[in-house]
Amino acid sequence: MTQYHQEEDMIEDIAGGEFERTPVPQSKLKGWKSFLGMYAGEHAAGTEFVIGPLFLTAGVSAFDLIIGLLLGNLLAVLSWRFLTAEVAVKNRLTLYFQLEKISGKNLVTIYNLANGILFCFLAGSMITVSATAVGIPFDMPMPKLTDTMPNGVTWIVIVLAIGAVISIIAARGYDTVSKAANYMSPIIVLAFVACGIVALNQLGVGSFSEFWDIWGEGSDPFPGQIKYTFWHVVIWSWFANAAMHIGMSDLSVFRFAKKASSGWTTAAGMYVGHYMAWIAACLLYAVYLQSPEAQALLSTGQAPSVAPGPLAYNAIGVFGIIAVILAGWTTANPTIYRAGLAFQAIIPKVSTFWVTIIAGTVATLAGLFPAFAMKLLDFVAFYGFILAPIGAVIVFEHFFAKKYGIIKNYAEHAGIKFNKSVLFAWAISFGLFYFISIQFDVFLSFVTLPTWLMCGVLFLVFSKMFQKQ
Question: What pTM value is reported for the model?
Fold first, then answer.
């Protein structure tokens, strides 16, 4: 056995059997049911209680919301099935180790750090969501749409307690994360259905035309928000999880799948969560907007709060509190798990448990600041835009390396720690389209796909040039 393989085995033993730096063996592969529960739980979850209302603050119309979400979520499912799952079952490696083989240790360390931190911020926003439910019995002031800082000691204590529990669950590994999602997701889905039915009753809806009229032709966006059209809804919902599918983060999940067809299970998350749940949460917020409190805020030019806890509690009582708490957990758990894998790629000799605890700590600290949840539409678009282009490197290498004469896993093959082809491809594509977005005020999600495609093409071009040299 070589020194390299001895070190790999030692790392694997310390890591606790999560196969961070080796392909997942056949004996550890899982059927589609494991992924169905995880995706249904993760995407019918805490973000949905925030994103649904935020669509209303952006003034969407009925057609834009209902048909736009239908199409956008379909595109997301297709991305998972035919890109992420296909690559995952072929190589059975985490995103981080796969990228290390292509990019080299030094370059991928920077990516892993950024990836892990952004995932922690996303998980932190879900801890914020759960905290809005836990705080109800304590009469805790809820964060406003414009809040950025913690609003009191009660808020801080609750966020820290929730973050500790979520971190421990995530640190116990994929099996625990999957089991937690399977147990919680039916409860959460039932809660969303109940919230939607109760909200429809409170709104006096008795027919489809009355349901359609809730949004009508749309309205002006709330103060500080931009107007969402049909294409805003389609493209944003497609790339809401861009880092996970076209960004290849879910290689870390689907490497455990027996077949690439397990990628279809993401439809449970998209249509139960990102469709039914978003619309149900919209309905909850529509009820709240008719209240004297919300009307008073709107009359003074202020945006009413979108705190999920009170919205669910007003509809279905204590069950709503429980559902929001669990919903935050089922999103934060796998997100912290992914962040832990990113950090472990940087410090591979530290166990999975402890790097995930580190990730959970960062997420908990982020959860103290409501801005991550209150600006979730903008944050999700931004982090997908940053991370998705790197996924194009993996995808284009996987599908086109042989055709264009590119050496796969070039950094590993050449024994280099820094593959400049990857850096140049990402920096040029990111820099160009971010400039276009800022300079010409283009919605950031609109330039995510062009950035991804350009990065993949440039990677092939630069690889052809530099590998010959």
Answer: 0.84
